[in-house]
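EI: anyone free to look at a 470-residue chain?
SC: sure, send it
EI:
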Amino acid sequence: MSHLRIFGHYIHTPYLMMAAAEAVIVAGAAYLGHFLRYQEFPGLWQHFIPASSFALIVIVSMLAMGVYESRIREGYSGMMLRTGVAIFLLGSLATAVLSYASQVLFMSRGALLLSAGSAFVLIAVWRWLAFALVDDDALKKRVVVLGTGHRALKIASRMRRKSDQRAFTMLGFLPTHPQESNLVSDYGAQVLRPNLGLVDFCREYQVDEIVVAVDERRRGEGGGGLPLNDLIECRLSGVNVCDVQQFVERESCKVDVDLLRPGWLAFADGFVMRTRHRILKRMFDLAASALILLFTWPVMLLTAVAIRLESRGPVIYRQERVGMNGRPFELMKFRSMIHAPDAEDTATWTRQNDPRVTRVGAFIRKTRLDELPQLFNVLRGDMSFVGPRPERPVFVAELSEKIPFYEQRHRVKPGITGWAQLCYPYGASVQDAKEKLQYDLYYLKNHSLLLDLIILLQTVEVVLVGEGAR
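SC: here you go
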């Protein structure tokens, strides 16, 4: 199985297996660090809690730094660079704080430093051996797409690169009849025309999954359409069969609005936020906001002074945005642009390298410090930590007319950070808004406290590495 679905969110099984193995390695490194420091091994159970807590903190730190996803984007060296930051900066710092806060979790500075170094070396060797000896394709599903028309084009155009095929190997596209539109070839997709029936083809080529991407599902007079009997026989033979919408959602973690059929919202699973979830989410928002304000108020004070010294105008920028259920509220940010009162009512998309952005503004945008005043919006209940990005009313009105399902993003509170902000770069057009909506719909469909935690952890990577910020 290449995926596990936990609380609605799809997680790649190989990543979970690697994280579990590395948790054991890091825990072992904690024992090794103690031995290197004191020339004696601690008792197994005596050192179990400190070693386990160190392993948990390091694994969470690596998740926050996007370590496991980074191998796809940056290769082994990029993965290890992020691992070093996670172990030596985030993991060791957090462990040191806990060590002095609780005697049960105590690790001396020398033992902690040696444990961190041992963990980095052991993980580097383990990954090198694992990547050299284990064939990545052996862990992936073998997938064939049934269809070569418009719906199949969504897969051919978006998932043709090997880096897009993280959990599957694409064998090719099967037309359902000779007259079917062949649109996928324009993107270099392999169109298969075997002299076998669908059942025999799946058996001979060891197909694990069939993705149904047929434009017309009903069987027509020419014998085209959906080969329902063959699909049933494949399913009963152990081959998974899924719809193209489900496949795109699972592999790209977004809901493709172009693939949605009438009545999808009425019958799709998810989209339900229970009362218990709302209460827990609100409690977390209040506690986290107060805690972050406690630690960041000196940074906020310095930011305010820098803004005031560089340019005239208010330090805090206030602007009307659309919140939950379409209710407007006043969003607060540190001002990052030159103060132009006459232009404040003119709604324009923010441009890359916008000349209106000040030098201080460019820095606080890059580091996300301009977002800190939104903690007060969270305390007031206008926003949550995690949710769709709030937009101005004029943009909402325009985008709701041009993009289907756009208003559905207002079913939850807007957030300081969110799934769309992490998965898609800053957008400044209707097309960008449509792309980001697809990630917002995924969040709405699969929202849970686990997904909120994943988003918050990956936001750490954005702040430290600067990805996605403008």
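EI: Residues 219-223 have pLDDT under 50 and may be disordered.
SC: 👍
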